[in-house]
Specification:
Porin, 10-stranded antiparallel sheet, Outer membrane protein beta-barrel domain-containing protein, disordered N terminus, 8% helix, signal, elongated
């Protein structure tokens, strides 16, 4: 239901302003001078899809990641450096679920059931990126840009301090993760606000898996490193 609400907001904003966006002249509105302000504020909503990248100790079959679309929202603080560069802080809350599917070869020599082959990894991240936005010159009502930077995230659902591990059905990850981020988008100048759709890739820089107590655990024993990667689709309003 949340996804449909986002799509509805996007379509409504686009429909009400499409004539303005494609005019040959800049729209005359209250956001004409927004790019000249030293500090501006806004908010964003959007979709995310998180994945895992695994490195293995032995050449067994890959752990499959069944990805789903998640939802996120947050705030924006934007500091103007010059006409083409802005420094941005975008704290937000991100909700996602990933399902790990193990091959039976991981359990050779041990008894297992179907539930042992699946681990549901629900994550709620407090995500805080510091980004540099590099824009082109404004062309009528459009301004394309690229964006990149670093970020940190606190996983509120990590189970890091849980004494139980996968032998009790608990998959554990580190609380803190560090990312680098790269993306692109376009600022659209509407009558009353600036609307910005963008897409961004995020890539973890640290190992996130918490090993089980048993060093030969079928769930973590063959994993030398596990790192998050993901895609964000953002709709920003300023």
């Amino acid at each position: 239901m949340k996804h449909f609400c986002i799509i509805f907001v996007f379509l409504l904003a686009f429909q009400s302003s499409s004539a303005q966006l494609f005019t040959k002249e800049k729209v005359a509105n209250s956001v004409d001078n927004i790019d000249q302000k030293f500090l501006t504020w806004g908010y964003f909503i959007g979709f995310n899809q998180y994945d895992f990248n695994f490195d293995y100790n032995e050449d067994l079959k890959d752990i499959l990641v069944d990805k789903t679309f998640g939802f996120h929202l947050g705030l924006i603080g934007d500091m103007r450096i010059n006409d083409y560069m802005n420094l941005r802080l975008e704290p937000g809350v991100f909700f996602t679920t990933r399902n790990l599917v193990y091959d039976e070869s991981y359990f050779q020599g041990t008894e297992f059931n179907d539930s042992d082959l699946l681990r549901e990894v629900k994550s709620t991240y407090v995500h805080i990126p510091l980004l540099l936005k590099i824009s082109t010159k404004r062309i009528n009502n459009f301004k394309p840009f690229i964006v990149g930077g670093i970020s940190t995230a606190l996983n509120l659902s990590s189970n890091q301090d849980n004494p139980n591990d996968n032998s009790s059905g608990e998959f554990r990850m580190t609380k803190n993760t560090y990312f680098y981020e790269l993306g692109f988008g376009i600022d659209l100048y509407l009558q009353y606000f600036k609307f910005t759709p963008s897409i961004r890739g995020v890539f973890s820089m640290n190992d996130e898996i918490i090993k089980d107590v048993d060093p030969n655990s079928p769930w973590t024993g063959n994993v030398s490193k596990m790192q998050t990667r993901g895609v964000f689709i953002n709709f920003t309003f300023q």
